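Sample intake — Nucleotide-diphospho-sugar transferase domain-containing protein
Collected from: Chenopodium quinoa
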Amino acid sequence: MPFSPPSKRVLQPFQKDELDEALEKASMKDNKTVIIAVVNKAYVEGEVVPNMLDLFLEGFWAGENTRELVNHLMIVAVDQTAYDRCRYRGLHCYRLVTDGVDFMGEKIFMSKDFIKMMWSRTLFLTDILKKGYNFIFTDSGIHFVIDFGEEAFNFEFIKNDN
């Protein structure tokens, strides 16, 4: 196909990216809310069995009326090992890549890589809001042991002025 100047190019229809697809699959259909947990290799592997991801998911299984919530969970993997394990488990997964930083290992509090990791996560969460989604951000060390009902996921009071 020959090159054409920008003024004569035909606009392509909007194509969803991987984040759009993961959010759409994981979100609650009535209010576009998703539960987000960030994991790395340390959370999905290790000498301890079950690992942190296993224990986190067990909370949804064992909790009171929480099993359905796992359908709205999106695991954000910051390294390939965590992403592969997430996909293997059949969960909603997104691979967050930050140029020049390997998040596979531990990052010392307030180190240069730790700060990059925190900013990467903050900007990622901002992107989710810009896409019109609500989220509940959780750590994989938290266990969902009770469903607080529809009221807990009602974000009607939040107005987006953008």
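Post-analysis note: The helical segments are 18-26, 41-44, 52-62, 80-88, 112-130.
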